[in-house]
Amino acid sequence: MASVTLKNVCKAYGDVLISKNVDLEIKEGEFVVFVGPSGCGKSTLLRCIAGLEDITSGDLYIGEERMNDIEPSKRGVGMVFQSYALYPHLNLYDNMSFGLKLAKASKNEIDKRVEHAADILQLSHLLDRQPKALSGGQRQRVAIGRTLVSQPNVFLLDEPLSNLDAALRVQMRSEITKLQRKLGCTMIYVTHDQVEAMTMADKIVVLDAGFVSQVGKPLELYHYPENRFVAGFIGSPKMNFMSVFIEEVEAERVKVQISNGTSFWIPVSGETVERGQRMSLGVRPEHLLRPEDADATIEGDVMIVEKLGNETQVYMNLEAADADVIYRQPDTLDVEVGDKLEIGIPAHRCHLFHSDGRACQRLFREKGVEFLDD
C-alpha cells in the first residue's frame, strides 16, 4: 500500500490545458473515485499517476517518492483499463501470468500469485478456459486478476465496468468493493457514473473541466455540495433548480420568494447573501413532499410520468424553473400527463446558490453524514 499525493499538477496537450492545478492527497488504503462528465480530465489524471502521460507541471508522489520522472514499470502501480484487453488465444492462467513471465519470475512464484488471485476473484475453476468461454463479468475479473498478481502498491481502474450490462455492473460494483476491503489496498477508480461513485468510494473527487470541484465523502457531497455543478451532478435524478427572490437575510437563515409569490425561510448561512438578489434554489426530487407536509407549495403541469413500480417520477413544467422539475415518490402515484399537480417544498432540505454557482452553507445537519475533516 502507498499514499498518492498530487501538488499543483497540470497536464496540457500543446496549448490545451486538460488537468488544472490539481491538489489532492490520497491516504494509504483509501478507495477514491474520480467522477465527472465526459471530457473533464478523469482518465488523463489517472494516466498521469500511472506514468502513461507526462505531467506538464506540478509534482506527483507515491509514498514519499517523487514520481514525475520515474518510468511506469517502477512506480508500483497496476492499471485496469476500460477494455479487458485479454489475449484471446491464451487461457486464464496464461493471461494472468503473462506479465510475471516477462519479468522472469520463477515458476513457483507465478503459480503462487496466480492461484492466490484466482482464489480471491473466484476464478480458480476457470483457469484452463479461454476468454471466449467467459461472461463479461468473468473477463473483467480476469483483467483485475492480471493486475492483482503484480502486487502493486496502488490500483488504478479506468471505467472498468462501462462495457458490462446493467445487472453485471451492479454485481461487479459489489465485487470490486469487497476486493478492496479485503486487500486493504489504495485504489483510484475513474467513472462518469455517479451511482458507482456514491456506492463504492471512501472519498469522491468531482472534476469539472479539469479542475477539482469538490472532494468529500459520498453523503457529504450529496447533502452539502459546495457549488451548483456538484449539486447537479451528484444524485439521480439530478437536483431541481428554480429562480427565487431574496426578501430578507439573517445570519443563519434566508427568506426566499418563489414564482407563485409564496415566501419561506430556509436554514442557510446569510453571510454572502444580500436582500433583493435573484438566486437559485435547489431541491432534490426525492426531497419534495405532499403539499400538506411542506413549508411551501407550487403547482405545475405534468409533462411525463414514469411509473417504475417501486417509485413514480413525475416531470413537471414550473414557472421560473431551469428545466422540468422532477418529483419522485415511492410506490405509485395516480397522475397522468396533462394533469395539474401541486407539490411541497421542505425548507430544511433546500439549497441556495449564487449566480456564479457558489453554494450558501446549509446549516441543517443531516443524520449519518460524515465529513472528511470530522
Question: Helix fraction?
Answer: 10-25%
Estimated structural class? alpha+beta
Anisotropy-based shape: elongated
Assign the CATH architecture of the largest domain.
Answer: 3-Layer(aba) Sandwich
Number of helical stretches of at least 4 residues = 8
Overall number of domains: 2
Report the portion of residues in β strands.
25-35%
Strand order of the largest sheet: 6-7-8-3-9-10
Describe the structure in your own words.
By secondary structure, the protein is α+β, with helices and mostly antiparallel strands. It has two domains: 4-228, Rossmann fold, CATH 3.40.50; 243-360, OB fold (Dihydrolipoamide Acetyltransferase, E2P), CATH 2.40.50.140. Helix content is 22%, strand content 32%. It is built from eight helices and 19 strands. The strands form four sheets. Strands 6-7-8-3-9-10 form a six-stranded mixed sheet, with helices on both faces. A five-stranded antiparallel sheet has the order 13-12-11-14-19. Helix 2 (92-102) packs across helix 3 and helix 3 crosses helix 4. The protein is elongated, with a radius of gyration of 24 Å. It holds the Pfam family TOBE_2. GO terms for molecular function: ABC-type maltose transporter activity; ATP binding; ATP hydrolysis activity. Residues 4-234 form the ABC transporter domain.
What are the defining features of this structure?
374 residues; alpha+beta; Rossmann fold; OB fold (Dihydrolipoamide Acetyltransferase, E2P); 2 domains; five-stranded antiparallel β-sheet; 8 helices; 19 strands; Transp-assoc_OB_typ2; cell membrane; ABC_transporter-like_CS; ABC-type maltose transporter activity
